[in-house]
Amino acid sequence: MFTFMVAAAVLTGAEVDSVDALSFETLVPKNILERYVSLLVEHRRLILCGPTGTGKTYLASRLAQHLVRRSVTLKVKG
């Protein structure tokens, strides 16, 4: 999974843990992902609904990984 993220970041020219790379990997528009991230940071919950097999669990796990990496990066820098 991490190898794919690095490849996606290299292809798009984005940083590995950026919203741009996450958008490229999940095929979800950047503005929607930014909104999801802000909702999760502010309210700590998000409800994803839709038909079976549309990638809700995949998106939820990728968002969780993004937030964890983001918090680790902020702690290391700060």
Can you walk me through this structure?
This protein is an all-alpha fold. It has one domain. It is built from 4 helices and no strands. The mean pLDDT is 85.
Shape assignment: globular
- Give the CA-CA distance, first to last residue: 27 Å
How much β-strand is present in the residues? under 5%
| Total strand segments | 0
Q: How much helix is in the residues?
A: over 70%
List unreliable stretches of 5+ residues: none
Oligomer status: single chain
Number of domains: 1
Element-level helix/strand string? HHHH
Structural class: mainly alpha
The residue-averaged pLDDT reads 85
Reported for the largest beta sheet, the result is: none
Number of continuous helical runs: 4
| Rg from Cα | 13 Å
Brief descriptors of the model:
78 residues, mainly alpha, globular
Task: Give a summary of the structure in a few sentences.
The protein is 71% helix and 0% strand.
Write the layout of secondary structure elements.
Layout: H1 2-12, H2 19-26, H3 30-43, H4 56-77
